Amino acid sequence: MLRITEEPIDEENYPALPEIKLCYAVTISTMIYAWYGVFRASQNYQWKIGDYGMMSSLPFIGPIMKDFTNWEWHRWSSFAQNYMPVFLVHTVLFNSGSLVLPELLFTLLYMAFSISACAIYFTPTLVALSLLQGTLVFIASRIVRKKLTVWLSSIPVLYLSMHHTKFLAEDPFLIFTFVSYSMLSYISYCIETLKSPIRKEDDTLIKSYLRMMFYTFYQPYLFSLIVLYPDFERQMEERKTKQREHRQVLWSAMRIVFWWILVETMLHFFYFEAILKDRNYTFSLPKDQFVALGMALGR
Fold first, then answer.
1. How many C-beta atoms surround the C-beta of residue 183 within 10 A?
2. Per-residue pLDDT tens for 210-227?
3. For 91-125, how does the pLDDT look when each residue is reduced to its tens digit (9 = 90+)?
4. What is the DSSP annotation of 193-219?
5. Are 53 and 66 in contact (CB under 8 A)?
6. Per-residue pLDDT at 296
7. Would you put residue 48 in left (φ > 0), alpha (ψ -120 to 50) or beta?
8. Widest pairwise Cα distance in the chain
9. What is the distance between the alpha carbons of residues 278 and 275, in angstroms, rounded to a whole number?
């Protein structure tokens, strides 16, 4: 009988597809042409009263209009720059305090710093609301140890945030950034510790409550990044044995700075969001430029 044997496929040395170079060429050419179309549409755009554009200044170029239509990016960009001192203090306090101070003293000191910083940047009213809501969820979850209790007890702050935003703060960005993310941390902690604490040290209500607040007000995870409580404790434990990769940290910081500078610079030459709000100008564009604007908005 004829026996057919199949040779194992070496996935690491699998031959490249012959058309892959053509695919790259087509993709890169398409992207370049699309962004060129956005650039042409932007340079012909006439700013009007009521548009979200302001005169800005670029090094070596001078005064030029900048698109401020993207409210989220505009608020994030300015807020992140102003918030940098808090991260610097966190870096020193967290890395030095956790080494030389007893855990309870360090926890209280760090919470005092973090809550004070939040009161300065997010207003005392929102911080008080967050603390009150977190305490309510914690107490409710300890009285009735069910997940439904956690979700129901979180409804008040969700209702206020959705229906009385202006009552809580003039700037809704502060609510969406701080109150919403801190609420997620409270929910994660209370759900994950319903049956038993993840850390054996948190064997009393006071210790458990302090750990919840420490987790919630841990600055790197305070907003814009959702880290579930079990992952938080795992990462805290790994700090004792895991070697720090300073080059990787520096590389990540350089990437963030690079992309921030690139986006800020692009907004001086590419006005895709402002253009798409002007229906008359948008409908007058050639089809290639019109489609390119949709591509840029998706990016």
1. 20
2. 999 999 999 999 987 889
3. 999 989 988 999 999 999 999 999 999 999 999 99
4. TSSS-SSTT--SHHHHHHHHHHHHT-G
5. yes
6. 78
7. beta
8. 85
9. 5
**137 vs 117: CA distance, rounded Å:** 23
Query: Partners of 56 in the beta sheet?
Result: 64
How far apart are alpha carbons 133 and 111 in whole angstroms? 17
Q: Is 45 exposed, middle or buried (0-12, 13-18, 19+ CB in 10 A)?
A: buried
184 CB burial (10 A radius; 0-12, 13-18, 19+): middle
Cα(41)–Cα(67) distance, integer angstroms? 13
Using one digit for the tens of pLDDT, what is the confidence trace for 154-182? 888 888 877 777 778 788 888 888 988 99
Whole-angstrom Cα distance, residue 197 to residue 191? 10
Select from 281, 267, 266 the least CA-distant residue to 47: 281
The enclosing H or E element of 235 equals helix 229-238
Segments making up each domain of the chain, as ranges = 111-243
Is there a contact between 297 and 42 (Cβ–Cβ < 8 Å)?
no
